[in-house]
Write a structure and sequence with these properties.
By secondary structure, this protein is α/β, with parallel strands linked by helices. Helix content is 49%, strand content 14%. Helix 3 runs parallel beside helix 10 and helix 9 packs parallel to helix 10. About 20% of the residues have low confidence.
Length: 293
Amino acid sequence: MGDGQNMKRFRLNISGKNMRRASIFAGFGVAILLLFLLGVKLYSNETVVTAANKEGKSTKVEAKPEDSANNSLQKQPETVKKEVPKEPKPTPQANTNNNQEKSAFLTFDDGPNGKITPQVLEVLKKYDVKATFFVIGKGIENNKDLLLREKQEGHAIANHTYCHDYKYLYSSTASFLQDLAKNDSLIRSVVGDFNNKLIRFPGGSSSNSKSAHRQAVTEAGYHYVDWNCLNGDAEALNVPVEKLVEKVKETSQGKNRLVILMHDAGGKETTVQALPQIIEYLKAQGYNFKTLE
């Protein structure tokens, strides 16, 4: 009986040891399997990239070896715009040739005036400079002696309309032509023969609204003249002298032929005061003074 029990115990011990060995080997096997799966997972993570689709969900996209270097180069022509060099704008060349003679045409509008015109004539006489006077009929009526003096002292006389009334003159081409003709007759009655085809539009001719008037006077044989330089005395009464002089300097830059707008009407006392400085400046710049005839 004792031997039977000992044998039974021996068998149980052997069985327990076998079970312990099996569990150990199983544990090793599980550990190895886990390590293997972990390695696969790590390897997998190195070979995929995550991209967001249009719905905002993440999807896995297989990374190709050439994507990192070549893909951006292949798409570059589609995303980078080529800059086309712009052609430089042409620079106006008129009146900038240094070989051209430099000419200055002093022009006075809206006279004659009993107070201002005599002073202008005295300054011009002092500097031996001739000018062009664009006269209006209403000024001539009371200053016929001044108009005659202008002609006798060698200045040019030109037509600036009789009334200088914008509303009337630009109401129709017929009104404009009739007013020019009226002033023409008045000027001729005072000074005799003069260049009656030279005119200046009140306010200048460049407005689009005056296109019909430009055509009408041209067909009638007139030659209208605007200006490309000015002293700014049309902007207000008695503009400060320094501003008048500076305006001429500013608007004469880069031009060899100057047609300078000034006025000898009432309220232009500072124009007379600035005139000597303007003449001296233009002479120093090499300009020769001429009349528009």
